[in-house]
Write the structure tokens for this entry.
Amino acid sequence: MDTTRWLIVSIAAIGFAFDIYELLMLPLIIGPALQELGGLQPGSPAYLNWVSLLFFVPAFVGGVFGLFGGYLTDRLGRRRMLVASILLYAFSAFAAGFATNLTMLLVLRCLVFVGVCVEFVAAVAWLAELFPNPRQREKVLGYTQAFSSIGGLMVAWANGLAIAYQNDLPAIAMPEFLTGLFGSIPPEHAHSPWRYTLMSGLIPAIPLIVIRPFLPESPQWEAKRQAGTLKRPSIAAIFAPQLRQTTLVTTIMFACSYGAAFGAIQQIQRIVPGLPQVQAKTAPLYAESAQLREANNDKAAIAKVREAKTIEQKIAAEVTKVQEYGGLAGRFVLAFLAVLIVSRRMLLRLFLIPGLVVMVLVFGYVATTSLDWLCVGMFLAGLCTVAQFSFWGNYLPRVYPVHLRGTGEGFAANIGGRIVGTSMAAVAVQLSAVMPGSDPAHQLAYAAAVIAGLVYCINLLMTFALPEPPAADEPEA
């Protein structure tokens, strides 16, 4: 590991961290943003529709452009696409903090997703080709991807800090020369915590701009390009007979891994307010707010609602941190086991079998009854589910040749994971409307349990069809 390799590993780790950082912003800020920008109330049809749109549309757009980004990673190089993708999602997230309407927020979230989807593919291909030694490569891919869970912790901390210090931070205002085009931010919304949380997504662009001149291209990819032996990538090539099963199976399984995360785990912020321990703190505030509205004291009523929402957000942020600690543990466990267990099928089953039990129990029962046990359950749910993301980052580079590595990874990660998998968030919202339960939070918990159980079962069954990677890198055919 020379200085150059440490720089590459560092920037890849930063990219992975803020990849998840940007994605996990949405569950933390979606409720306050919808209420502020659209005046939408939780549980209303309009609210549910916008939740579905903000979860699914960016994922769909990101998946489509992410697939194209994987193709460009094979055509133009790993470094160029990695740098461009990080800059895109960082500046788009910052701009989202200035959103003045829901459409503007949706468009900017789409750009964030595009950057995130391309970054994962480019970074994994880049690292895999920088470290040809299999054992070293498994460790580097495993431990750098662990920073994704650190990114999840960071966004939970950032959101908590934004909530705690919202009144001490500078007011957010639309630049005057843009107000005619986008409108202005009302003074009462200039210190909204969700805006500060979004704007913190700019952070990864700072070290990247400094380090970029010292980053080399992938040696494998560059050597083939210089020699004129780099074959032209194509989507059709990943469906050639020798790669068809690999592409189809990994796409389905990647979708299931993401489906468990977005259809269940990422719904926890809106499930937490239904817990008895949380309602015991917030119900009196909502009751006071209703009384104040009847007395035509709207300003005081809004303050009470805001106080209740702050309590809900703080508790949800704490539960999210626990889940991210579990995810971080899962990634480190995966990185450790990846160099010890030869069979990729067996390695994945070590997380799928206990995860199936944990996910159904946590969302089907614990998430509606006990805050303390929910924290324990979410740690285990994060461990079993998030470890699967690191698994795919280690597995995919080994089953595609150099000229198809970005394209193959891009298809499985973006079509399977980002489009089909993340759509489970929208499915959870719509399914919750027909589930039993005393309130929307309980209905959502039961919907999450159904989705988690289904995708875990599919993933477990698909391991029997998952091809074992070759002992050495797949040769150019």
Remarks:
- The mean pLDDT is 86.
- The radius of gyration is 22 Å.
